[in-house]
Amino acid sequence: MTVTATPSPTGHPGYSQPLPRQPESAAVARRLVRTALAAWGLEDQIDDATAVITELVSNAVDHGRLSSIRVIVSRPTENWIRLGVVDRSKAIPMMRTDSNGDQIRGRGLVIVNSLTERWGTDLYPWGKQVWGEMRVEDAA
Per CATH, the architecture of 4-135 is what? Predict the structure, then answer.
């Protein structure tokens, strides 16, 4: 699999990688996030960012349709980090507000909501991107 780095208006490259839609891809996604944040000098935010990407990948693995997903890590502006996962399902994720009983699963978007300033879904004709944005704590 190839990691793609693309230039951005902020001068910080964005990172993107296609991955198989399987649970093991979360580890690869966390490495991509660590690489990007280290390159941007934002090591203090790696723990929260890797937790967010893990939950986004997990949701895509559970609810995506085709055999692959795409992880995207970018800096849309100097003050924001965007973590996204693209899959081929058009189903819009909903944050659970109930306790979900004794089930361990189903709370991923609650975690994303607590660790990001904002999150959402961009719909495409063929699928969607679910993303979370974190404010840069110490703009370099």
Answer: 2-Layer Sandwich (3.30)
Q: Which residues pair with 86 in a beta bridge?
A: 70, 129
Q: Which two tokens stand for residue 17?
A: 């990688």
Question: pTM to 2 decimals?
Answer: 0.86
Q: What are 50's two structure tokens? A: 């890797």
How far apart CA 28 and CA 19 sit, in angstroms, is 8
DSSP 60: H
CA 122 vs. chain centroid, Å, equals 13
SS (H, E, C) 17-59: EEEECCCCHHHHHHHHHHHHHHHCCCHHHHHHHHHHHHHHHHH
d(CA 15, CA 7): 9
Q: What is the pLDDT of residues 79-136, one digit of tens each?
A: 999 999 999 999 998 876 665 555 555 578 999 999 999 999 999 999 999 999 999 9
